[in-house]
User: Fold these one by one.
Assistant:
Number 1:
Amino acid sequence: MLNEFLQLILSGIAIGCVYGLVALGFVLIYKATEVVNFAQGELMMFGAFIALTMGGLQFMPFWLSVVLAVLAMALIGGAVERAVIRPVLGQPIFSIVMITIGLGFFARGLASLIPGWGTLTHRLPTPYADQTVAFGELVLSAGHLMIILVTIVLCILLFAFFRYTRMGVAMQAISQNQLAAHYMGIPVARVNTLIWCISAAVAAIAGILLAPITFVHANMGLIGLKAFPAAVIGGFGSIPGAIVGGLIIGIVEALSGRYLPDGIKDVSAYVVLLAVLIIRPNGLFGEKLTKKV
Amino acid sequence: MALLTVENLSMEFGGIRAVDDVSFRVGEGEIYTIIGPNGAGKTTIFNMISLIYRSSSGRIWFDGNDLSARKPQDLTHLGLARTFQNIELFEHETVLQNLLVGRHCHSRTRLWQQMLFTPATRRAEIEHREAVEQVIDLLNLQHYRDSVVGNLPYGVQKLIELGRALCARPRILLLDEPSSGLNVEETDDLSFWIEDIRNLLGITVVMIEHDMRLVSQVSDRVLAVSNGRVLAEGTAREIQENPAVAEAYLGTREDVA
Amino acid sequence: MRFLFKTSYNQDIRLFKDRITMGWYLALGVVLLVLPLLLGEYYLSQASFVLIYAIVGLGLMLLSGFTGQISLGHAAFLAVGAYTEAVLSARGVPFVVSLPMAMAVSAAAGFVVGLPALRLKGIYLAIATLAFGFIVEVTLQQWESVTGGSMGLLLEPVTLLGVTLDSESGFYYLALGLTGLTLLILKNLLRSPTGRAFVAIRDSEISARSMGIGLARYKTLAFVISAAITGLAGALYAHKLQFISPEQFGVFVSIELLMIIVIGGMGSLHGAFLGALFMTMLPEFIAILREYLPSSLAYQPGLQPTIFGAILILFVLLEPAGLYGRWVKIRTWFQLFPLYRKGLMKREKSYVKSDRLS
């Protein structure tokens, strides 16, 4: 009984990490450019598909295909920013929301049109597939364990990046005040592009981590819609908040899927979201939004 | 009896006292100016009077009403209107539409009457427009009536904001740095308008202002604040000769040496 | 270019700018009235869909285009209207009663969503409405005793005062009448204090409030009116299709509804109609396009979302003012000919205006 409960918590944490990573992608972009990227889940889906396609090439070892997929997604992320997002910066929030929603539609449709990707469900072969790790009586699949480990490592890396590198500090400056950062000689436009690269790369990692659990298909990006509640619960401007939000959503989903009636699982994330928003309108870790007059 | 009474007003932002125990009274028909160096807490005082910030302590009385029990949207109904330091207009709309919003506190028709646009609604609309035209004539805005606000020059936008507040027919008008961004000519015009607003319309004016020429031309009394505290109160002349005020603006001799 | 000399306040207030404009709209009205004589069954049916989408567009335009509140869950209001109508009409409630009931239930849902909207801004509100949309969709699937779950519900044609409107033209006239009524009420609202309050909230909440506009009251009101109008469209939609099921009201439908107003042109009532026309015609165009594509591509289900997404991106990038904005530009070009210059309509680009407290 207790074991089952702990088992649920563990798998909730693993899925929560994926939500958290996608949410992290939202937060990175939002903090720097105040754009909410509704296509974040689709970036993740593309990352998984690219890894799948590369893994399909016989001569390519798995780890190399992962690295290449992440790099390719970074390039795609930067290209999307240059082509579509930069021209609309400064327009009302509504236009920006609509353009990223359009991107999501486009990417999802496009993935199903690409030969070999299509509308089918694919299995991404990983070296750690079907392996399990036992902690006493608890059994965790290697896929889940991998998600948790990679998330921890990624968080440490991102923390170090923002804390100790020039570029990381520049990004923090931009998220405080774009105009001031521009005056201080920070190339705002270039840094924004780079943030999209990082965010798309993180999304690709999340996609590859998720692939062994949900398989790879054109609609796997819809998980991005679950990552929204995670980002909002975390406050939408806070990187640790995104991960915590993801974990909360993951655990709530795992538990409600087991203990509550059918169908509740699918909406539990949104119920939690609405509850948090009603109690704290700016999320658990959010900053206050007030205009100065 | 004073129209506006501010008693021991204080405001803290995360441990910093932006406004510290400020009190003053403004009589009916006065032009009362608040001056002080940047960051002295002038706009914070305005924001507390207009209930955008809730004061940490102290009371604000307007015409016998305790404002702490009120909401920001009740103020124009009570007869208190304001402008903003950085223009806050409805920039996608025409000048006429902006000014009509100023009439909002005088709209009496019900929702269903507006949906069906009953004769009562039509009459009320015509009344609003008459009131707005008077303000347009007063401020010489005829030329811009149907222009979209966002495309107009800064000086005109400031004037429209003043006009919008006037359309509410307030008893007291709070002006936050009305001359900022205006050139010398426009500032001169402004000083006449402020006097007209008081003399012709009988509206009490409280303003925050940096331009000492404008201040001494129109103000009946001046309040000098610095670091959130009251330094001195008196006529413009008294304030200019006050050593404490000069010190707050220019620093003491020891600082220079 | 015609100049208009205004000599009375009534001239500013009335529905049509001048006699010539009124003439054009009268002509349009006449065309719409005789449309059933001109079109075949199929195209008349499409015309009814345009009207239904236009009603939704009007409701959403009031909320997003005029009050500035983003809703990513508007299909939920459509669903509430449609299901209320389906359930009531199945129990024999006459249309003249069930339609206002559908609107009222939808308005109540709008009130509930509007409540958190008071405290939420921009993106938080968008995501809260998205959450609302999901919750309604799942409720419809799970509450089988009332909604029939994923089996859906069947409806009879509308019976209005004893007359059964089972012909295409009968339904068309019903939809046309209700569209006209909705348009008139919105137009009236927008030239009254309430409409000005909505627009004021859109442009600057802080000064709207300082001008005496209660944000809570008017934001909730915008949600309630918008939801009621969308509920009306939902009831019509249910009767038009005579079958409703949860997947007709999913999140992607909400996005398509938003596309109506974005493509039509934000902040204009004309835009709701142009957008509705465009969104109804788009699948037809895609069907035609399919014949010219290689068959490996043409029958992929992904084709439609790809095109929808691309069109949405292109509109926001190239014509943020939508079809109506494009029409205004073309009209101005002709009026000013040959003086029109390219930058005439260009708005100054502004910096990202942050609401974040710094």
Number 2:
Amino acid sequence: MTDFINNVLIPGAAGGATAGLFALAFVVMYRTTGVLNFAHGQLVMLMPLGVLVVSDLWGLPVVLGLVVAVLVLAAVVLMEERVAIRPFVQSGHAMPWILSTLGFSVVLAELMAIPYRAQPVRFPWGISAKAHDLGGIQVSWAEIAIVVAFILLVAALTIFDRRTTTGLRLRAVAQDKDGAAAIGISPGAASRLSALIAGGIAAITGLLIVSTQLVSPELGLTFLFNGFVAAAVGGLDSLHGVIAGGFIVGIVGQTAATYMGGNYVQIAMFSVLLVVYLTRPHGLFGRASVRAV
Amino acid sequence: MSAALVVENLGVRYGGVTALRDVSLSVDEGQILTVLGANGAGKTSMLRGISGLVSSTGTVTHHGRTLGRLDAAARARAGLGHVLEGRHVFPDLTVRENLHLGSLLSPKPAEGVERALALLPELEEMAGRKAGRLSGGQQQMLAIARAISGSPSVLLLDEPTNGLAPMLVQRTIDVIGAIQELGVAVLLVEQRVEVAQALGSEVLVLQRGEVVGTAHGTDDDLEDRIHTAYLA
């Protein structure tokens, strides 16, 4: 049992939380715009890379690096929302936003490769990934931090969604853009706010995953597929669905890696996605909109 | 009475298709103007052009202020309420939440909700129900109440009786009459001649995107004239 906890449950939960954080950003953006942001992987890397550039390359304090990175990330997120997402929100076709967000991710990756010439770099200020022994259970602060951060973020966003007027406005836009505009709620402003929230999630995700990973422009892409599967399994319009989606993806992936080998991880995840989509096309917690006639 | 809404030479195009051409009208405070027309006459495009949900040419003036390039949300905030065709309530939000969101346009949101519920008290007992679970008629009442809770000075109503049972049609007519008594300027588009007759309102007839005639809801020969226009 201890082996199962150490080899599957704990790394699976940490991996699931990582996938869940990506899924959370997907869901936040998808609900108000109907767009899956394929550039999110690069946005996740922007925060640690920004801190590295300011503090490692320029030799300025880390705190200043954090501030600069947050500002740059916010600017990039708003730019992407304006040029690569909002123009295609109501086009009724997926292809324009698939291409525009993919294109934006390619441009970002190229720009982010410049400071370190595309070489992976260690992030020296991350949370310790050293495993501690707790009565036979091996767990690191980095694993605990990402799981706790994931659950707290979902809880905070759910409260924001249910208990605040701004959250209610975002839900209104998610359900009916014309209906929202007709009562003075701007779908454009909702899209901007969602992009900033997703950017905030990207910043936190980036700082957490570099505890165990080297910073590189492509790192975010590695997790993008897992995040998409987690969002789809939980339901693309469900905030709390990402908890189930994330942990299912993490545990299934880690089980496959442990007992079958690393080559079977993606096959196992895709199989989960297929089963969920065949049985519940809107995901485990997603809902087809109900409208009486 | 001063003009609450003045529309001059309004035009709406979808790609190469002209849906509305050179429509001009004016609605005073506390007045109802009914625009009658068959399917495809351009009624919905006209309202969407006025409220900014689709881009349009021409001029829309609200209480002397030209709305120009303001988008739909900004026009709503300026006091232009719009009850859309198909109701467009928020299906996963409760009736209470729908009304709360609508009332945020009002300077005093609580009073906005009160005014809406005074007009449609039947919504009070379903306040906790999801809007998507209501019947079509109840959703229509909610859509009207949501717009009224925002205290608009002009209300655009897009075929509010469409698909309703006769009893609910009469209820809707009564509610529109009560909205008029609040001093709101109402621009109503309808296919049913009897609604204009019941409200005794001024009537514009729209056909293939153009105004082809004017009448009054109390005119004896209104129905014949409308049918002639529909079939022309």
